Known about the structure:
Strand order of the largest sheet: 3-4-5
Order of helices and strands: HHHEEEEE
Amino acid sequence: MNRPPDTSSTRVDDGHPAGAQGNVSLEDLPNSPGFWREAWRRFRRRKLAMGALIFVGFLVVVAIFSPAIAGTKPVIVRYKGKIYFPALGYFNPRWRIRSSSGTISANGTRRT
């Protein structure tokens, strides 16, 4: 006959296995750095991964400033004594050249 092993001697009076703590509070546990902090730490150790991250960041900056980099509008213009940035008018409309009759486009035509 197969009988299960006798485990009564390894149990303490509260029903938990011997050596186990019954009530563990959160203050007694050691602080862990967290999943994302540990993942970032491991990611930073890899030179190729960091190089790729920097390259992707560079591509994001190029994409954001693409209207100024490859646009048909000039980057900086002095018009009627004021300095304007028509190529960056995509980001802030006040940086476009304005006249009394509306905004002047890149080819010199006026828009209202």
